[in-house]
Specification:
The complex is a heterodimer. Chain A is an alpha/beta fold. Chain A is built from 11 helices and 9 strands. Chain A has helices at 25-38, 67-78, 99-107, 123-130, 148-162, 180-191, 221-225, 249-256, 260-263, 286-289, 296-316, and strands at residues 56-61, 82-87, 113-118, 136-142, 169-173, 196-200, 216-218, 230-233, 271-273. A 5-stranded parallel beta sheet of chain A has the order 7-6-5-8-9. Chain A has a 4-stranded parallel beta sheet with strand order 2-1-3-4, with helices on both faces. In chain A, helix 4 links the parallel strand 3 (113-118) and strand 4 (136-142). In chain A, helix 5 (148-162) packs across helix 11. The radius of gyration of chain A is 20 Å and the shape is globular. By secondary structure, chain B is an alpha/beta fold. Chain B has one domain (7-66, 79-166): Rossmann fold (3-Layer(aba) Sandwich). In chain B, 29% of the residues lie in helices and 27% in strands. Chain B has helices at residues 7-24, 38-50, 68-71, 102-114; strands at 31-35, 57-59, 90-98, 119-128, 139-144, 150-155, 161-166. The longest helix of chain B is centred in the first third of the chain and has 18 residues, at 7-24. The radius of gyration of chain B is 15 Å and the shape is globular. The chains are: A alpha/beta, B alpha/beta. The A-B interface holds A 13, 29-31, 33-34, 36-41, 44-46, 48-51, 309, 312-313, 315-319, 321-325, 327-330 and B 60, 62-65, 67-81, 86, 95, 97-100, 102-103, 109-110, 112-115, 151, 153.
Chain lengths: 330, 167
């Protein structure tokens, strides 16, 4: 399938990072290992390495974002790249410029990487197909399709706490239907070989073909959380919901909101994750979000190292001559 | 071709020369840093032979290399670890082979991102010809004159041994 081969250059090096689907386990582990070494950069008194000096990264956001855009920006800056933030909703497209024309203009400014967020699934793929060959595209979330860097920072967070993926049972709870994060997490977790992935939510918010992704579907939160090692809560994505999928937020919290009482069904050392932004009292109780088992803020911190790793990997693939694979320069 | 020296003998001589040099410069409480991976092995031995008080540090200069775009990132990069305050410390930087000088240039840059050392002394097991930058070692196990397509490599950590490799 050529669908995801677009992510690799002719030498098999990662060139764009658009989706986890179709990536090999070893590549995911390489990303996590590389991120692990980048996490040390923050201990330096100068929190910067010169790796991407002279490169220009464009944050191209067609949809609002704070956390993702900020951590991409920080990651690029800690790699010494120059960063441009373009909020496209407020710029040229509203004046009638097409997506491709916007791209060609940015390309004419000699940028090296576009970090793209868009409300349509497939937007990052589309852009990757149309940019000049020296430009790398990172998908920072496209519609309900994928959010691969978020999934990788979640895997990084899980590995920091749990070590061995093959022993783990992971539950993803909530609005699976509209969640690009859930899709990318499911691909990452199954590729990394976890023991079991469960998705938990009301029938209206779980895609009917969910089981084909290799997950087990639960509609009862208590039953689904039994003996899990990792609980990933998702935000209710009101902005993507068309029609009445839920009776009320209050009803949703009663059935699917994570409380101390429901979390007691998980393993005693289970960690609680959330990609943010959290809706307190809708999908998660404040006492859990701020409690000792929550690793929600760690996820944010890890996002920087993971994005540094992915950015440097795609930009290092840019030249074809890997003449010195052992890298002996002495 | 030059015969390969005995690593253990070189380490003893290097430790002795280092001690003399540190005494002559009145250096108290120096900190030692090895460069991954061969330099760390050499540094571990020298650190023990000299009985240094500060914990041993290690540098992986991958993020500071000047040929990153050409060769990419090795996921096996180890995080750098400097378990002491770099500011105003005398640092002994250790590597296995000094060749082009580019690794040492990168290591200097990385050390300075952790702070401002009082001074840096460079100690290398092998100093071979082929310098591309004006960098020289203060303590040298052995100098070697090699053909450009001949490389010398340290394997370890137990035992430490030198090997020739032709490219």
């Amino acid at each position: 399938m050529t669908y995801y081969n677009i992510q690799f250059d002719k030498n098999g090096c990662l060139k764009h990072f658009l989706t986890i689907e179709g990536l090999k386990r070893q590549l995911l582990i390489d990303i996590l290992d590389t991120a692990e070494s980048f996490s040390g950069v923050t201990t330096q008194s100068i929190k910067k390495v010169p790796l991407l000096r002279g490169k220009t990264v464009v944050n191209l956001f067609f949809e609002p974002s704070t956390r993702t855009r900020t951590t991409f920006e920080l990651a690029a800056k800690r790699l010494s790249a120059d960063v441009l933030n373009i909020n496209v909703t407020a710029s040229a497209t509203s004046k009638g410029e097409t997506l491709l024309d916007t791209l060609h203009n940015l390309q004419a400014m000699h940028c090296d990487m576009f970090v793209v967020r868009h409300d349509r699934g497939g937007a990052a793929h589309f852009i990757a197909q149309h940019v000049a060959p020296h430009i790398s595209i990172l998908n920072a979330g496209d519609g309900c399709h994928a959010h691969p860097t978020q999934a990788m920072l979640d895997m990084f967070t899980i590995r920091r706490h749990k070590k061995e993926f093959s022993q783990l049972t992971v539950a993803i709870v909530g609005d699976i239907l509209h969640s690009r994060v859930a899709r990318s997490q499911i691909h990452a977790l199954t590729t990394l070989g976890v023991n079991e992935v469960r998705v938990i939510g009301p029938e209206t918010l779980i895609p009917c073909e969910a089981e084909t992704l290799g997950v087990h579907v639960y509609h009862d939160l208590r039953e689904g959380l039994r003996d899990v090692d990792v609980v990933i809560m998702l935000r209710l994505q009101h902005e993507r919901m068309k029609g009445a999928l839920l009776p009320s937020e209050h009803e949703y919290f009663r059935l699917y909101g994570l409380t101390e009482e429901k979390l007691a069904y998980a393993k005693p050392d289970a960690i609680v994750m959330h990609p943010g932004p959290i809706n307190r009292g809708v999908e998660i109780d404040s006492s859990i979000a701020d409690g000792p088992r929550s690793v929600i803020l760690e996820q944010v911190t890890h996002g920087i190292a993971v994005r540094m790793a992915i950015m440097s990997m795609v930009l290092s693939a840019q030249t074809s001559s890997r003449s010195n694979p052992e890298g002996e320069i002495n | 071709m030059t015969p390969l020296p005995d690593v253990e003998q070189l380490l003893l001589e290097m430790a002795e020369n280092l001690r003399t040099r540190l005494d002559a410069h009145h250096v108290k409480d120096p900190a030692m840093v090895g460069i991954h991976s061969g330099g760390v092995w050499v540094a571990e031995r020298l650190h023990a032979l000299l009985g240094l008080q500060q914990p041993l540090g290690s540098l992986d200069i991958s993020f500071y290399r000047d040929d990153f775009v050409r060769i990419g990132i090795n996921p096996q990069v180890k995080p750098s670890h400097l378990p002491f305050n770099v500011d105003d410390h005398h640092i002994i930087l250790v590597d296995d082979v000094l060749y082009t000088g580019r690794t040492i240039r990168a290591a200097f840059n990385e050390i300075f991102d952790y702070g401002r050392p009082a001074a840096i002394t460079l100690a290398v097991l092998i100093d071979r010809n082929g310098r591309e930058l004006p960098i020289q070692a203060d303590i040298i196990g052995q100098r070697m004159d090699l053909l450009t397509d001949t490389h010398i490599k340290l394997t370890g950590p137990q035992p430490l041994a030198l090997h020739f490799k032709n490219t």
